[in-house]
Amino acid sequence: MKRLIYVSTASENLELSDLKAILDSAVERNVSKNITGILIFNGLNFMQVLEGAAQDVDEIYALIVSDTRHSGVITILSEDIIQRCFPNWAMRLSHVPTDAESTSLDLSEICGPMELPQQVPPHVSQLLKSFNTLKS
Ligand SMILES: Cc1cc2nc3c(=O)[nH]c(=O)nc-3n(C[C@H](O)[C@H](O)[C@H](O)COP(=O)(O)O)c2cc1C
Predict the structure, then answer these.
(1) Which pLDDT score, from 0 to 100, does residue 101 have?
(2) Is the pLDDT of residue 73 over 90?
(3) Which residue puts its alpha carbon closest to atom 19 of ligand 1?
């Protein structure tokens, strides 16, 4: 199996309905391909963890990279794994607001807080927790 983490910048005109649509199609396809992970949004950037069979992760990532609802997709981690960090989440959206929050969207309806499962290894939790500092 493979774990892939990327960051990207949301398109300027992203609306709540876009986030809902992203989440709906993500959950549907991820369930069918047995892909798990987390999608974190801070009002400007996304960070996403994708885990699953290498070929499936690569296929979904190719779709994600060409999605016009965000841009500047940069892979920050790609590694072989034996165990998933997020075995129970087909895709969970977490909102991590920052001081420089640039969105006026009310995301509480579709987002949970960022709670990391115990099995998240330190190098992954470090990346997820440092996500805020990526925002300029
Ligand atoms: C930030 C972001 C994260 C996404 N995450 C996923 C994902 O985890 N799984 C997925 O299938 N699609 C994801 N998508 C959507 C894909 O880019 C693509 O639009 C979608 O798979 C097409 O699905 P559809 O054929 O059901 O419309 C994401 C899109 C964005 C912008």
Answers:
(1) 55
(2) yes
(3) 67
Nearest residue CA, atom 27 of ligand 1?
25
CA 132 to ligand 1 centroid distance, Å: 23
pTM score above 0.85 = yes
Q: What is the CATH number of the domain that holds 81?
A: 3.30.70.100
Domain count across the chain: 1
- SS3 of the chain: the string is CEEEEEEEEECCCCCHHHHHHHHHHHHHHHHHHCCEEEEEECCCEEEEEEEECHHHHHHHHHHHHCCCCEEEEEEEEEEECCCCCCCCCCCEEEECCCCCCCCCCCCCCCCECCCCCCCCCHHHHHHHHHHHHHCC
Give me 51's structure tokens. Answer: 């885990």
Residues of the domain holding 106: 2-134
